[in-house]
Amino acid sequence: MSTPHRVAKVELYHVSIPLPAAFRPAWIPGMPSHENRFTLVRITTEDGIEGYSAGPAIGRERAGLGDLLGPYLLGEDATDIDLVQQRLREIAYLGWRNWWIEPAFWDIKGKIVEKPVYELLGGEPGTIRLYASTGEVKDPAARIEEVEARYAEGFRTVKLRVHDLDEKVDIRHVTETAAAFGDRMKIGVDVNQGWNIGKLADLAPAFRDLDISMIEQPLPRGGDEELEGFESPVPLCADESCLNTDEFEQAARRYQVINIKLDKTGGLTEALDLALEHR
Ligand SMILES: [Mg+2]
Questions:
Q1: In terms of CATH, what superfamily is 132-237?
Q2: Ligand 1 center–CA 25 separation, angstroms
Q3: Residue 239's pLDDT band (cuts 50, 70, 90)
Q4: How far is ligand 1, taken at its centre, from the CA of residue 111, in Å?
Q5: Domain 7-120 has CATH 3.30.390.10
């Protein structure tokens, strides 16, 4: 095939940016993080067009990944997204999911025709409202201070994290934070797999009374079948890391709110298809 846009180079960069203070993510209890880390990929075509993308990292776990990517991607037509998707699927068969790389190819396509990627995907410019996501479990006073700072930045929806063994602590933290904001802030809660179905049944009515707009990932990963037949008084939001389209479709039946992380679920192409199908 004659195309000037064949992949000539695949480069990985392991980036780590020091944080001003230790960050203790609610989703990995006991592992304080001192750096913001990610893997950056740069794909360069034979005619010198560069596409960039990035995926979150714990450390340098992708250090040897280039050895795997090279044989699959070098020489392929960088503008053929179907082909790129297929290659990434084949690599996943060997154990690594690499959907985070796929947007780099959209970047290349956009640069070739000098158009923003949203236009290639059929979108139009516009504004959307974002929510602020807090990441740590903190005392109510510290939570209120943090949410107040997000409010001052213009956010009107925020997501809190709860992860205590004692459900009374979770309730107290959310109650005190919600009380400090009243109608000023819409509040969601991410449990990061911290409960079981019994705790969810106990706590959901209290969260409804606090006007909490959603409860995210209340159950440990893989335990979703316990939600069959459970009627939650607060909309439940699925884990944002569905590993494939099948898992996503299953989550869509059990949860009222769905998150998509395109670096986990099929890249930009499949994530957009799923979002359009389920909106
Ligand atoms: Mg989450």
A1: Enolase-like C-terminal domain (3.20.20.120)
A2: 11
A3: confident
A4: 33
A5: yes
